[in-house]
Every structure is written in C-alpha cells, then in structure tokens.
Design brief:
Layout lengths: L5 H25 L16 H7 L2 H34 L5 H9 L6 H15 L5 H24 L5 H8 L4 H30 L4 H4 L7 H11 L4 H23 L2 H5 L6
Keywords: Cell inner membrane, Cell membrane, Membrane, Transmembrane, Transmembrane helix, Transport
Organism: Azospirillum cavernae
InterPro entries: MetI-like, MetI-like_sf
Length: 266
C-alpha cells in the first residue's frame, strides 16, 4: 500500500488550508463587535447575528430561497430521471440532439438567460412571480441533475429488472423497487447539486425576481450595494453552520456515503 510522502502531505495541507481560509475568515468576521468589517481582535460578539433577526427581509428571503431550491430541484429530478433512462438505455434518432438540448443551459451565460426569461415571462404574465422563478431555475439546474443520473444509469445491468418483470412485477413496481434504488446515489447527488446551484444563483435571478420574490443571494447583493458592515458575513456564517449541521445530522441518521455513493457503513 502506497503512502503519501512528507511533501505530498504538506502540499495537501496547504491546499486544504487555501480552500478553507476564506470560510474561516468569513466566520471570524461575523463575530466582530465592531460596526465595520474586521477580525474580532477586541472580543467576540453575537451583535450581527442578532441583527439578522432585526431584518425580517433576510429571513423572508431565506425562506423563499429554501422553497425555491426544493421546488426547482425536485422538478428537475422529475424531468431528469426519465430523460436519463431514455438516453442511457435506448438508441433513437436525435438521441445526441436531445442530450445536447438538455445540457445546453451550461453553455449559455446566465445574464443572457436572465434577460431572455425576463422578456418571455413578461409577455406571458409570469414576470416577477414565484412560478416564473421556479421554471427558470429548473432550466439552469437540470443539466447538473441529468449528468449525475445519466452516469448512474449508464451500464446498469437490466437483468434484475427483467427478473422482476418475469415474476409479475408491473413497470411501475419494477421501477420503484428495482431501478430507482440502483440509481438512487445519482438521484440524490443530482438533487443536492441542483439545490446548491439553485440556492446560490444570483446572476439570472436578479433579472427575474421581484420585491415579493427576492431570494437570499439577491437580497445580499442588493444590501452590499449600500452597506458595508459584518451583517453579510453573519448571514454567510449562519448558512455555513446550518450546512455543516445538516450534513452531520444526515450522516448520523442515514449516512452520507450510503446516500451519495450507494454503499452502506462498514
């Protein structure tokens, strides 16, 4: 068994530190008692975390972003699963064109998509609505879900499905009890990646969101245009803490390796 040498360990430690440094700095700034961006050299304070509760627009924007991410990711998975199974299992005329169509949002700048969606939704009466936000987010996050589900579906042994069918299982039962568990790691990974991209999206959403449907990234973007204080750092740190807590709970209850990789715990 090969072991990493000292130089490799040092390089890995420096690389990991380079990745974590911005996150640690943001978390440190969030605890400053000062009214400007600074490390808490004069002590630690929860002043800016309390300030989040005094700004209900941030709380409302967080709820909107959470609901938008869940809705758009779920719809993207509903579309991506049959599309991935069809592309992976069947050879039909236009197969490559269909796959390219589903992946095409990756090649279009989000600012272009934002302007296009703004004009389109305005013409059909969905401008500034939550439905319009969900539909637009489904378009841009669908490629991420499709790629992971397609990877899980490609090369899957269909003999198990054939055995289920030979035992009298219907097509829906075979999919629910056989196919879906086999591609579940790809589905779960695709949903998580789609949710992250939806929750973090700001470039396109700026054009589509309205005062009633402002997401958290857009709210933060608008806030820093007129204010320079640690409130944004406190919001970011709170999101980091919530993400870490959610991962720990999920790993404790179900197991991240089992969910994302498809293997049980040893």
């Amino acid at each position: 068994m090969n072991r990493n040498g000292p130089l490799a360990l040092i390089f890995n430690a420096l690389f990991l530190g380079f990745l974590l440094a911005p996150i640690l700095v943001v978390c440190a700034v969030a605890f400053t008692p000062d009214g400007y961006l600074s490390l808490p050299t004069k002590g630690v304070s929860l002043r800016w975390f309390k300030a989040i509760g005094d700004n209900p627009e941030f709380v409302r924007a967080f709820k909107d972003s959470l609901l938008l991410g869940v809705a758009s990711s779920t719809l993207a998975i509903i579309v991506a699963v049959p599309a991935a199974l069809a592309i992976a299992r069947h050879k039909f005329p236009g197969r490559e064109a269909v796959q390219a169509l589903f992946l095409s949002p990756l090649m279009v700048p989000h600012i272009v998509l934002g302007i296009a969606f703004l004009r389109f939704f305005t013409q059909i009466g969905l401008g500034g609505t939550f439905v319009g936000l969900v539909l637009s987010h489904v378009v841009i996050i669908l490629p991420f879900a499709l790629r992971l589900i397609l990877a899980a579906s490609t090369g899957m042994d269909r003999s198990i499905e054939n055995a289920a069918a030979s035992l009298g299982a219907s097509a829906w039962t075979s999919f629910r009890r056989v196919t879906l568990p086999l591609i579940l790691p790809g589905v779960a990974s695709g949903w998580v990646l789609a949710f992250i991209n939806s929750f973090d999206e700001v470039t396109m959403t700026v054009f589509i969101a309205s005062p009633e449907t402002t997401t958290l990234p857009v709210r933060l973007f608008l806030y820093i245009q007129d204010n320079i204080d640690p409130l944004v750092a406190a919001v970011s740190a709170l999101l980091i803490f919530m993400t870490v807590a959610a991962m720990l709970v999920l790993d404790r209850v179900y197991g991240l390796e089992r969910l994302l990789v498809g293997r049980g715990r040893d």
